[in-house]
Amino acid sequence: MRAKCILAGALMLMASGAVAQEPKRGGTLVMGQSVPTSIFNNAIASGTGVMVPGAQLFASPLMHDENWNPKPYLAESWEISPDALSVTLHLRKDALFHDGKPITSEDVAFSILTIRDNHPFNTMLRPVDGVDTPDAHTAVIRLKSPHPAILYAMGPPLMPILPKHVYGDGKPIKQHPNNARDVVGSGPFKLVDVKPGDQFVLERFDKFFLPGKPYLDRIIVKTYPDSQTSILEFEAGRLHIQPFFNRVLELERAKGNAQLGVTNKGYEAVGGINWLLFNNKKKPFDDIRVRQAIAYAIDKNFIVKALHKGLSKAATGPIHSGFPQYSPDVSTYPYDLKKAEELLEAAGLKKGADGIRLKVTCDYYPGDEDGQKRLAEYMKPALKRVGIDVEVRAPADFAAWAKRMAEKDFDISMDAAFAWGDPVIGVNRTYLSSNIRPLVFTNNAQYANPKVDELLAAAEREPDTAKRKAIYVEFQKIVTADVPLYWLTELPYHTIYSKKVQNVPTTIWGTASPMMDVWLSE
Amino acid sequence: MSAHGTSPPAPQALSPTREAIAMFVRRRAAIAGLVLLALIVGVSLIGPVVYDADPFDIAAAPLTPPGTSEAWLGSDQQGRDVLTGLVYGGRATLAVGATAAGIAVLIGVTIGALAGFFGGIVDEMLMRVAEFFQVLPALLFAMVLATLFSPSLIVIALAIGVVSWPPTARLTRAEFLKLRELDFVAAERVIGASTGRILWKVILPNALPPLIVSATFAIGTAILFEASLSFLGLGDPNRMSWGLMIGSGRSYMLTCWWAVTFPGLMIFLTVLAISLIGDGLNDALNPKLRERR
Fold first, then answer.
1. Is the pLDDT of residue A445 over 90?
2. A307 to B56: CB separation less than 8 angstroms, yes or no
3. What is the pTM of this model?
4. Structural domains of chain A sorted by starting position, each given as residue range(s) with its CATH number in brackets
5. Which one is the CATH code of B32-59+72-292: 3.30.470.20, 1.25.40.20, 1.10.3720.10, 3.30.540.10?
6. Record: contact B56-A393, CB cut-off 8 A
7. Closest partner residue to A381 among B58, B150, B252, by Cβ?
8. Which of B61, B148, B237 has its CB closest to that of A377?
9. CA-nearest residue of chain B to A395?
10. When comparing pLDDT for A381 and B3, which is higher?
11. Helices and strands per DSSP (H, E), number in chain B
């Protein structure tokens, strides 16, 4: 009965929201985040803690809608040459930086080269040879080879346009004093106050180039490392929106609150997947039968339905189902203990007197309780059923886990990565044999398949969308058959918001794109 | 130096012991504590033998509330049965408590005895070491140790033991300082007993009563310590313990009270039982109280 009332209330609220209300100017939005922001310059850093504020502070050449279509932003229009080796951007002529100076093609050229040379996603702009500036409002990006991913690399979280007269003053960009405070941006909001580790305040930039935008006067971003605190703040009405929320229990609780909305829209381009990593170079995981057996022994349905309460989605392969390149035509490993045991027997792993055939350690990346720690803990009872004794190795901190991954000092480990708009940016790195490096978030399975290397190299430069998708379809088929790692779920990211918040960002980038259409109703 | 108020080593050792037992038995609270502890230890030792189950196994749907046939006391967020956890987790919790207390008493008594008996520079140096450990915030230090070495039961027991010996050392030192001047010790010296014999065979037995009481309390403290470390996420994730149950259920407390309440209750009852026994022992072994009756 009560549930019905809440449902009815929610429907009414939704209906009232659906009636095209006139957006109201003004108001202060309070936004929560789980990781503190230490720098605001997303030209040189990745992670949600910098990409979300970065997209508010800096404009990018393009934006994207909910269906992956590029849209004009700082570039009014753009063309790709027939040979796909150059991209011409026609910039808006009225755009200003926060210090009142005009945004010109010089700034765009400077920003693109800065990102190419300093951003952690080193494949993102690697083919960029240079940027020509025939006039103040035209920038031509020259490419060494066709680079279709650039349409997404020019999006808000990835390509902030920085003022050359501030960030190009010769000081090293990674240590630049204006990265952490006194940011001079080009986006709809400017940074006015920073309390490091606690909160920062963004204020409407009155001379923003899109007339009437943004609607909000102010965004206060507060850090809540603990998701329970976030929920209590939401319930007290002190918090309006929190993106990248992935705690199952608190999401459930928010869903039961008529004042709050919960959506998983806005994370398609983020494309986060978590998986079980096998050390493919270490016995017995070099044997494909052992990897397959472990895959068969894992009940993804239990993970999604019981552990994640239906808030996540089972992953089928290396590419997130929200991506245009996604293919469901892959090898799958439905839960089958008998098959798992047969494969292990065939691989020569016989059960001992205690019913144990193999002892392994399982690490996990700390910081994502539901996506990582609980799944690592799930491996213990799950694999015990096929005679594998799992010892969960709790990492002391991120650095401790990262070191184990870098040194390949592990048997199996939980792991995750974001794709960020295009497989070239965030997927290829996990499977390319050239990316087996002593570093976290590289090809730590040490997977090497020449055919896969070849396909990924071809996909990187294939300008034709359909042909490119075909390459990725084949890639997904091969990799899922090889199981160098086993994909468990798409990360259950959600945005929790107060029903007062209108136009909650739901494009493929979600809140990692400018929140200039967001407004507050009373 | 006078010896009034302290009895020389008893010629018939049985009589005071018997008297102490009689004294202890008269304390109802102490007996209740003893029965309770015996029950808890009994279940922890025999339970896993009789009741064969894997405490990490998925026994029911996650977050099943208590009162269903597959999980009498409910299941936690991973679907693990809380009752199985309680039965299996007792061993680890009690073992860590006892081991840590043992380590603390061993270090404490050794250092305290040497410092109290030899005095002078030895005393100065050993007490400075003790002070060093005493000024460190114990929980923080134990956290550092548990973090440095990946948390296993042994590391946790060691970490707790290493941070909690100074009070025992101070108590032992005080006892030794007092006893070494007494006539019966002097008598041993005169007949040429070795230092070792005087330390461990003559003084230590007479210093034991307060040490036994303090060791009892140390077990209770160590169990609480283990729970605190686990609560902070520094427990051994591969050995079921009551502390681990509380630690992993902590973030689900608002919706899943049973996963933390029952192990919490077990820790509470165990520490209560140990404290009651400690109080009873204190009364029974205190000669001044004994004389009053």
1. yes
2. no
3. 0.84
4. 273-490 (3.10.105.10)
5. 1.10.3720.10
6. no
7. B58
8. B237
9. B150
10. A381
11. 13, 0
